[in-house]
Design brief:
By secondary structure, this protein is an alpha/beta fold. The protein is built from 18 helices and 14 strands. The strands form 3 sheets. It has a 6-stranded parallel β-sheet, with helices on both faces. It is elongated and about 75 Å long. Bound molecules: uridine-5'-diphosphate-xylopyranose. Uridine-5'-diphosphate-xylopyranose binds next to helix 9.
Length: about 450
Amino acid sequence: MHKRICIFGAGYIGLTTAACLAELGHEVTCVDINSERVESLLAGHVPIHEPLLTELVVGNIGRGRLHFTTDARSAIEYVELVFVCVPTPQAHDGSADLRAVFDVIDVIADHIARGAIVVTKSTVPAGTGHALLCRLLHYGRNDVGVVSNPEFLREGSAVADFMQPDRIVIGADVGAWVKPVASLFESIDAPVIVTDVVTAELSKHASNAFLATKLTFANSLAHLCETVGGDASALFAVLGADPRIGDRFLRPGPGWGGSCLPKDTRALAHFARSVAAPLVQLECTIESNDAHFDHVVARLSEHFGGSLRFVRIAALGLAFKSGTDDIRESPSIEVIARLVRHGATVTVHDPLARPVGDALNGAHFSEVLDDAIAAADVLLVLTEWPEYAELDPHTIRTVSAARLVYDTRGIIDAHGWCDAGFTVLQVGRPALDFGDRTAHSTAA
Ligand code: UDX
């Protein structure tokens, strides 16, 4: 049965949820306070880079099933389900800033239909659902439900993750509130886990905390391999073949980042400490991630006799991972800031992402990859874009003085680069030196 739905927030989660629910046949109105964003969406311009999203937005506007407005009051008339997909950024103390979530309740409380259900998709700490119910009661609304339905979508595959999720989580403290939400996803083939609100809220933070912890473990082992002469890719093939461990999220890198993992790990760590049940392991994970950014810079510096002053570095990649133009909490930004602090001259390139504000901390940005490379002493791969994996070391030798490449994502053919005359630093492996390689080939 198709439903009328209102979604607050036209950001990553809100827009994907709105477009996908409309695609499933529901009548969706998406509300955002940013009138420019609403205007642009009404004209079919999707402000974020996400495969399939534009097609879904344009198609469903055309079918009359997807609407955008700034007028919250008219949008929630006769609506059974109100999704809250507004941002919950990190506050100064590491906790989640929930003001936008409560603002939605304040706006809708007097107008929401009797029996309607507020569904939170925004990532919120445990207990927020209860606090929202209390806020509704404060407005005399004891006839409105609150359900938690966390979203696990990844940037770059958000639509696919919504349509083919690993699981759908519905957290409700009143049995009757489950069915209206579950019925939205009837046509999606995925296990539905029904639980209480607190557990559903915890599940999102816990998932991201677990992923971050797995990555930090992988990055720490990669560091160990670099030090003692092991090969992290073979090591992770061994670990990943054990189904209890699994082979996903074991790809080492410069450290993890993005719009969710950093803020969600800090929010959970802060929350757990505030209720006297600290997650010490998670706190170490967060601290270790910073140490991994430092490690990238230290390893490079070591190759220049301990100083990066005036070393010209082409930093390849600004986005926090490939396939997105999002630079929020990007590991690249962390590494670039450290390089600049160490006196290096850094030129940054990205095929899609562009710097915003003072994200580059004084580094330069070049839209032309060849220009960034031509002026460099070192190529430093920070994001796993296929463009960088396909770079031809023989051509680069003819256009650049650089003879050192540092691949923090493990995407280049290290031996190929070494044979072409480069010294190769690669995550999870000891350095591969041009001299060593020729000696090795001659001996063989
Ligand atoms: C993440 C979660 O995966 C998703 O479930 C949640 O809803 C939001 O946060 P996203 O932020 O899109 O999604 O990025 P993700 O693909 O998880 O990558 C996060 C970071 O880990 C990136 O910096 C990425 O480069 C890094 N990463 C990921 C690795 O270094 N190695 C890996 O093997 C996987």
